[in-house]
Each structure stands twice: as C-alpha cells, then as structure tokens.
Amino acid sequence: MTELLPRPFVFLRHGETFYNRACLIAGSPDVPLTPHGESQAREVGTLLGQTSWSHVAVSTMFRARKTARLALPEDELHFYAGLRERHWGELEKTPIQDPMPYFETLEMGESWASFQRRVLEVLNELLTRFECPLVVAHSGVFRVICNVTQGHPYGARIGNVAPVLCQPPTSRGDNWQLTPWQR
Asked: Alpha-carbon distance 91 to 157, whole Å?
C-alpha cells in the first residue's frame, strides 16, 4: 500500500541526539538523546500531556522510547519496530546531504520502497484502530508521511520534538495538511 488511511494523527520526532547536532545521518545506530534532547522531551510533555491520547505509538529505537517516556511518563506506550528509522547502510554516520538520496539503492542499506512499506503498514494499522493517535518516531518516518501525503519526501527537516498534526483531505481534490500541532 502506498497511501495513508484518511484519519488524523499527530507525529512527534524524537529529541536531539549527538548525530542531529552534528548534522550526521544516524539511521540504524541506537543512539541516546543529548541532555538538551532530554530537556526538549520534558518540555514538549507539558503540551502533549494536556491531551488524552487514544494510543501512543513509539519506535523501538532508544531515542524515540526515551523521548516518549520523558514527555509522557504517565501514558501507556506501545512500541513498533516498523517505526524504526531507515537503515542508511554506507551513508550512516556521514554528513546529511542536500538533497538526501532517498530513492537511491544503498550499499548494505534498506531500500526506500521497503522502508516506506513497513512504515505505512504500521501507520495504517494504527489509523484503523485508533482515533488520532500520537506517533513518536524519526525524521525518516516523517519523510515517508510527506512522500505519501505531499507527493515527495523533500523539504525542510522536521525539528526535534516539534509535534505535527497530520490531517487528511476534507474534500476531494484537497491535500493532506501537515501543520504544527497545538492544543
């Protein structure tokens, strides 16, 4: 499937890591948050904690799990391997490129098609079962969301712990709306 079910959800990228600060591709390494990233997660928790989430879906990677635990210490978290960041193969731990080679075949890495398929499988499962879930994951997962809702994965990088409301079209011919989420 290459589409998202037309149901709203909120996406949150994890807090800052050393790789983010150094503008390096982290991909599959399970890296921790920086002290600043931990602080970011606690701060966004004051906003996120004002909502009773139908479901909090979290990548199994440490940086996403830690962000979710710090932001929502009282919520029940549900972990999904399908929300893990893309394995960038030989490009991991190298500088972020502009533009990123999303669709290129990566030596020892995960193809875009495979990555997109596993992310959409989880997102569509969530959208089938829950009303407006919160998804805590990675910039690559957000690129998949952009690709299927906007027609391409390019554009400005999503900020760390900057919640985005993903709303489906309200009428035929409209596009999905990806806007900063505020309670």
From this structure: 18
Average pLDDT over residues 150-165: 94
Q: Which CATH superfamily is domain 9-180 in?
A: Phosphoglycerate mutase-like (3.40.50.1240)
The amino acid that residue 27 corresponds to is G
Tokens 């009428």 appear where? 171
128 belongs to an annotated ligand binding site? no
Question: Any binding-site annotation on 154?
Answer: no
**pTM recorded for the entire structure:** 0.97
Residues β-bridged to residue 179: 165
Active site residue 107: no
% of the chain residues with pLDDT over 70 = 99
Per-domain residue ranges for the chain? 9-180
Residue type, 105: T
Phi/psi of residue 126, nearest 5 degrees? -60, -45
User: Bridge partners of 57?
Assistant: 78, 135
